[in-house]
Amino acid sequence: MSQDLSQAFDTIWADLAGGASMVGLAIVGVGLIVWDIFNSNDTRIPWVAAFALLGTAVLEMFRLNEADTTAFFELIRVGGVASFINVIILGSSLVSVVLSVPYLRQIRHAYGEVYALVLFATAGMLMLGTANNMVTVFVGLETMSIALYILTGLVRHDEGAVESALKYFLLGAFSTGFFLFGIALIYGSTGTMYFTDMAAGYAVGDFKALFWAGVGLFLVGFLFKVSAVPFHMWTPDVYQGAPTTLVGYMSTASKAAAFAALVLVLFHGIGLVTPEAGGGNLQLVLALSALVTVVLGNLMALAQKNVKRMLAYSSIAHAGYVLIGLAAGTSSAYAGALYYLLIYAIMNLGAFGVMALLEWDGREGRLQTLDSLSGLAHRHPLLGVLMGVFMFSLTGFPPFGGFFGKIAVFAPAVEAGLTWLAIVGVLASVLSAGYYLRVVYVFWMRPESEGDPAVRDTTFAVSRVSAGVLTVCAVLLLVIGFMPFVRNLTQSFFNSGVLVLLL
Amino acid sequence: MFAETLFLGASLIAIVASVGMLVSRSPVRSALWLILTLIVIAGLYLTLQADFIAVIQVLVYAGAIMVLFLFVIMLLNLGEMPDLERVDFKKGVGFVLGVAVLTLLTYIGTTAALDFPASSSDPATTGTATAIAKSLFTQYALPFEMIGILLLLATIGAVMLAKRTFE
Amino acid sequence: MDLPFWLLALVAFGIINFMLISASVLVYAERKVSGYMQNRPGPNRVGPGGFLQPFADVFKLVFKEDIVPEGASRFVHSLAPVLMVVIAMTVPALIPFARGVVIVDSSVGVLIILALTSISVYGVTLAGWSSNSKFSLLGGLRSSAQMISYELSMGLAVVSVVLITGSLSVVEIVEHQSAGAAVLGWNVFRNPIGALIFVITAFAETNRAPFDLPEAEQELVGGYHTEYSGMKFGMFFLAEYVNWFLASFLIATLFFGGYLIPFEPQLLAAVPMLEGSVWLGVLQFVSLMVKVSFFVFLFLWVRWTLPRFKYTQLMHIGWKILLPVALVNALAIALLVVLFTSV
Lengths: 503, 167, 343
Hints:
Chain A is mainly α and 503 residues long. Chain A contains 22 helices and 2 strands. The longest helix of chain A has 32 residues, at 159-190.
């Protein structure tokens, strides 16, 4: 009966140190729940959460230059690329938590549990984003998703929030089914759960068709999570009805985690199956999905009157840009995709953060139109300027980060022979100026008299912390393009990778 | 031979029961079909010599979770759902797509399943509770703990959404 | 047991008949004991001392008309009692009646028993739903809520036993209790809290008083079987008594040494000819039946001692007392096992 377990936990301390961020956040989350039992809705809870996120983010920054290794029986990656992904996730979570404090208090839902749930979700994202095994991908994905379903429905007395939570939950559960079935088929055909053994398993396996069926289902699950067309239908409704700062959280951190996992699984596993063995199909699938995502996301965003809904479609479009990078499938494209995710996280958090401050309808901003905020920048010049920066950056105007991000994904696509896709991406970006700059136009150029009378009576309280955080985001966007070491860093992650050895 | 017969029988019933679940118009009947599906899936696990998993499947899914399903359905007193409507154009397209997918799956199934692979690992060492526990508590300890967090957060979230008020 | 298939089938047939006969004996026992407890004679007309009363009842039930209420779901209405009886009759296959006398010695036997218990709740729930009657529905609802609430604690009590034994096989659980001096190896002494929890949850899972809310006659007429008549009602009746009997078997097997005879080594030393003879098996069976009879009596004893719980009390006990205690107990047992045995 007894089995030899004496070696099983030999590396436990090294493993725990490697996964310190994930483990630490989970423990702090449990601690916050217990705290909230004894001291309900304590105002210090969010700051503890923010401090934990800050601490882990700093820790991961120090690890950026460490070698890319694995921990916990090779289940997760540690250091190097994993740290970069963790920094994006932890940074977005930190910004979201800080912005949420005044916002949730304003909409009267500042429960202590919310911050514990954010920490749990973040721990799940870290597991997903740095996974090296299908099991960790799935468990991380579910931890993240279920926490997000709950956060979406936070304002349960508002029918819009309930609608968005229910839609998210049902469709998310449905997509999880596809995802899991895909994993099962991939495992069945390769005999391994580890990304890094997949290509070898595929080569000796007998069931090539099963593998591709599995990859197809797996991709369906992933494309749902990153809201790529044709699995994007949930995004606008969910983003419109959920609490705004938390929408910022789910549109950046969760997307970064899902895309990071996709990058890792493509780079270390599925993508290694060469075109001769059928890998070319995968590129075509990703490219087509990128094409429709970019086009449809931008076209639909043009027609929106509500800013949150517009930003939802815009986030679909940005998922398309990242997919362009993934479709290219070279090491510099993967690096570009990660770089893009970082910049996208900053600018999208900023945009949602500003909109969270400009809410007046008492319905999480799902009813107010853009036009109702006419001329608002004259009353709140700081918000006007910040929104301008974020909008220009989202469009991809040169000095801002968004421009450099787009170069980082489009250039490798051209090198990989997907020039047509890159051209579509650039044209779509031009199109996107139509709706992003309209926000700037309405904020600055329209007279206040064209706005909603209710807006003129509302004083938008802008706390110093929120303004400070948003300003930091904006400044980062301005300077990040001129910090080439960030771009070089992402490139360095993939230079020593297996792919290069193969080529 | 027995395993093959069991597999074929169980998978046939599973398919029929799943279809039954989809087409039943009464929620309770749907749930009953689902229970049947879950139980025969336990039979599929038995063909893989995974006794422990099979029993757990019955105990947890068929036994505990589906009782909750039934409980909620009966508590809400859900009536019959409306009958299936006549086939319209959209459903026609869906039907064609469905047939296409089915053809594809059949094609994959027939081409892939022609030589049935023998289970490569020794079943006595992979399907037992001891073997599962060992890999769960050593190799997969991290996801296992994370699932603990997942269940905790789901519980807390459910209670928070249902009961919490902000003073 | 490596018996040929036909012999195994014969043994199984024998056991099923044994359970059927026992059920009628139990009916008689319950009525008689209840009678004495209430200071009245109980059945004493049919047969010597009223012993044939249950058989007369069975004949009555068989000849009664089978009524399916209007608007009932016919198939499910018939399925429910069948489900109850089939599951009740399956469990004995896993219970060792003496050393080596067990139909299936599965490596996951205890779990199979738990799984069967959890399935059997469908019988009650579906009977309640399919009858198209509010009393039945309420009975079914109460039953499923009660079963869900107590199944967890029961499972945890079983887990504590499994932790001590290190095996999920029922036979190994029994044999493991032969360690220790005389009766001190029994799980009830090694794991008293687990034993108590298991006994309480066994009452709840069999819907016996004081947990008989699903069929509380004062409020719900007959509960889930209000709308059943004839032999379908008889099957519920049968299943209930068999379950009661089986619960006693399980308590005896898991916590009171099963078929083990107290002071068995000393007995064997005194009478060496017993070793390996069939009489040892008979003695073991008698030992088991004595224990089982005691628990059967315990069920009756409790029934006429404690009043029925209110629904709120039921939920309170299940979730706020039994479950935490069972959890802590399982943890403590696990800790003790790690500390005091070499894994």
